[in-house]
Amino acid sequence: MPLFDDLAVSAVVFAIALAGMFVNRKNLVVLLMCIELMLLAVNTSFVAWSAWWGGLSGQVAVFFVLTVAAAEAAIGLALLVVVFRNKRSVDVDTIDTLKG
Amino acid sequence: MTAAHLLVEGVFGFFATVLVISALGVVVARNPVHAALFLILSFFNAAVLWVLLGAEFLGIVLVLVYVGAVMVLLLFVVMMLDIDLVVIRRGFVRHAPLAAVVALLLAFEIGYVFWARHLGLVSLAPPLRPGTLPNTRALGLRLYRDDLYPFEIAGFLLLVGVVAAIVLTLTHREGVRRQDPSAQVRVEPARRIRLVDPFPKGTPGKGGEGG
Amino acid sequence: MLSRDIWAAGSEILIGAGSILVLLFEVLARRARPVWAYRTALVSVAVTVFLLAAGSLGRSGVFWHGGLVNDPLSRLLDIAAGVATFLVLVYSRPQLVRHGLERAEHYFLVLTTLLGVLVVDSGGSLLTLYLGLELLALSLYALIAIDRRRPLGAEAAMKYFVLGAMASALLLYAFTFLYGLAGSFRLSVVARALAAHPGSPLTLAAVAFVVVALAFKFGAVPLHFWVPDVYEGAPTAVTLLVGTVPEIASIALFMRLLGLGLGAASGDWGVLLMVASLLSLLVGNLLAVVQLNVRRLLGYSAVGHVGFILLAFQLGGRGGETAAVYYTIVYVFMSAAAFGGLTLLEARGEKSTTLEDLSGLARRDPWMAFFLLCALFSLAGVPPFLGFWAKLIVLRRVIMAHETGLAIFAVVMAVVAAYYYLRVVKSMYFDPPPAPGGDGAAAAAPVPVFSRVWLGINALGLLVLGILPEGLWSACRMAMSHLLR
Fold first, then answer.
1. Residue numbers in A near C141 (CB within 8 A)
2. Count of CB pairs separated by less than 8 Å, B with C
3. Is the CB of residue B169 less than 8 Å away from at least one CB of chain A?
4. Each residue of C397-446: pLDDT tens digit?
5. Which residue from A89, A11, B197 is spatially nearest to C201, judged by alpha carbons?
6. ipTM of the complex
7. Residue A67 is part of a domain; what is its CATH number?
8. B132, B74: one domain
9. The domain containing residue A35 runs over which residues?
10. C173, C172, C194: which is closest to C183 by C-alpha?
11. pTM of the full predicted structure?
């Protein structure tokens, strides 16, 4: 059953990426990379299900998720540059002016 | 099990293993540049898995467009920012147990979901035969005909991405000389070349020549 | 076939075209300055709202292979979002001009925010819901950080971005489960598949992830951290936007995804939402009491209001959902008046950050103080303001579902909320004005009459509609009685 193998790989990658967001709470760059990794896992899942159902809907979804991920990466990196210009650091600890 | 099956299984096993290892690498790498390289490695391996699953076009797009453009952008920014590495890694050990618990919990939950399906608790429809059209052509037909509406929204998403990135990062500092393309295009010959007579009448130069 | 489908997306096309015109003005006619961008944005929103209200746009039906679903609910929410955006544009311009922040890109991003909301309102498939949500979210990330002289903005945007991207990834992962179950992204197919496989582990996982992601988008309690930070960190004109228009998309997402798509699993998400609702009521309202910063106060109070909305929604069934939609629409216009007042105060050159900044406002500007009073009374749920009826309808639904304990808890929290809202009113009317610091009074400039008049209409509307509450309520009930998917 190749479906389950692929889904398992996707789940493991997603779990690693989510855990990475907790471990690397201090580094914005790696946080962005973990988000990319999560989307990669999601896409792998979509492709696997798409193969299972024999349709193309899943692959079309991957196309759109890739588009969104690209736009998101652009904005995320732009924000990163702005934060870095303000603080000269991407350490989350220096970003504590807001109390939340 | 035929030889072809074994081959596919073997290829799958290899690339899936490397995918998981490189994903781990992204999370634990000490240097953000290494993390970005691991991320690119995992994208490559995922692309192979996609091709194995019959999504050839997306596999190629992932490598050519996504790795080629987005990941390079990411790497570029990482290197540009010149990040202080020592400061960042503090707290990794402190958060590691929590993260391990979260990861294990999530992996367990998701594993349970698929394991339960494996045991046949849910009846699933049998897999259909894939379409007869080539993958790229079939995708194109879907995108430009049936899914035109989401396609247009995706176009707006990219436009917002472009505008936002420019609005956030483009600075017009005072006192910096910059190119003005429209001024360059509109320029006229008369303003660029002025014909000057090097020896106007009545200047000492002319007199000297005569003498 | 195709022309029918294109016409069905008329409101989205109008707003999209407006946003592109705004950009074109900036590129082609730099001399015209952003006034023209502002006017274009205003006109395209007004035309869209007018055509929707007149019934020329948004004819009911299912279009684009299920990607776009127009029904009375989508039209109602579209109109509400359009009117709210119109008010946001009108209130924010004087402040943007005064602080040198007026740029065409700002108006472009406001319009794409609205576009995202419109797409979500009439989203008929997981795909269009996701894309609309992202369009909305990406525009907001950029707007929050748009003032580069304000480091707080970039910080708040970064926090919001990281958490928001994580929430979207969770939502997408849930969508892979739903797709695996149904083999399609259409909500109608997903709903049928869920009904055919009750209690499957895939459904449970999908419900859990969806609820987490939606709770984040709405700002419900375990995932509310970003709300006060964004409200404080964003430029005032953007806080005004964040506090109003996206709420419409949130309730639309709840209705489409949970109500229509995952309706078969309402037992599962009902419990989760009830917990989130109680926590939001408790945490939001109690933390709002101790805030001295007006924007953080309104941020935490927004969390409390989300608690009320979820309290109605978790009851399940059309009754509870109608109450939730009604409450959301009412909240959006109360919030627009409150933040609009603060924004116009800043346009006058006053500060509106802390409670002290507002003290004695009634003497300086009686009309503005009165408009803010209307908004705050309505938010507090003082009869006969509109906010009173919203709370009453939710409580009636809760009691009808025999959840008297929940109703009593909600009333107690509403009393707490009334306390901190009235404290702001007391500060405006009874506290002495702050000692003249020199720059405050001298720099005060008149606010354009146009903006003031609209604020007046908005604030007095809360009173008038509160005295005649039947119209909006029956509009909501009508909209909810002919749902499509």
1. 75, 79
2. 85
3. yes
4. 999 988 899 999 999 999 999 999 999 999 899 888 776 554 444 456 77
5. A11
6. 0.92
7. 1.10.287.3510
8. no
9. 3-91
10. C194
11. 0.89
